Amino acid sequence: MITFPTGYNGLVIARYSNFYAVEDSDGKITQCVSRKKISPLCGDFVTWEVSGDGGVITTLMPRRGMLTRPDRRGQPKETAANIDQLIIVNAIPDVGDEQAHYAFNTALTDRYIVATELLGATPLVLLNKCDLASPETIERMEKALSIYQNIGYTTLLTSTKAAIGIEALNARLCNKTSIFVGESGAGKSSLINAIMPQLAIRTNEVSAHSGLGKHTTTTTVLYHLPLGGHLIDSPGVREFGLWKVNAEQLAQGFKEFKPYLGRCKFRNCSHRRNAGCAIEAAAGAGKISSVRMASYHKLYDELQ
What we know:
The chain has 9 helices and 13 strands. It has helices spanning about 95-100, 105-120, 135-150, 165-175, 190-195, 200-210, 245-250, 280-285, 290-304; strands at about 10-15, 20-25, 30-35, 45-50, 55-60, 65-70, 75-80, 85-90, 120-130, 155, 175-180, 220-225, 230-235. A 6-stranded mixed beta sheet has the order 10-9-8-11-13-12, with helices on both faces.
């Protein structure tokens, strides 16, 4: 059941080209177009009215945030709106030798966390396929994840095969609008199927009632979770990277930096071997993880 904000009668659950699948309070899905100068996204609450066999979107509710990713040309592309949570998925390798030398992908995880912080959403750091790992590997991974726990982020160890962490994941998804991101082969599709086994049925339902047909398999679609909340599934978003941000925005994306921002000696401090840098001083005093500090430096150099 969707709870609609006062004054709005539709939720955009899919978009393809210039057509939108809009769900009403009765669960009915209608294929709509939008008025000029209105560009709805999956996850938008809207007002719409019947027009012929379909409908017309007339207004959008102001958004809490908007997920943007680079398109094929590297230009920002708006993908989904009003996302509360990004599930950042890493995974233990399938091969034994790789497991022994596996290092948690801090660089990629921190890239997603920065994007999540700038979006105004909450990250959930997840390590999947933990049933494959030896006790020694799990111990190393728990140590890597503790860096994020110390900052205040939630972390989870999961396995769809062994049903580890799925109940905890469901609890974290409840009453939120979430999207899965992470490295290819990390098992995102398996996790989605584990928490929503009726996904194929719902996909066919959206296809049949919205008029979007086969395009529901290649576009962003919002699904309702059994325990409450929504899941936005978008194949193109799963590998999105950081869009262009400036140095100030990058620093804002590191949550543990915030108590020290504005306290550096120079206003334009890059926190990169600058005299009088409050953030580097905090790192030197052990108040900021050296791993996260190195990750910030790496991202800063990439953006330059």
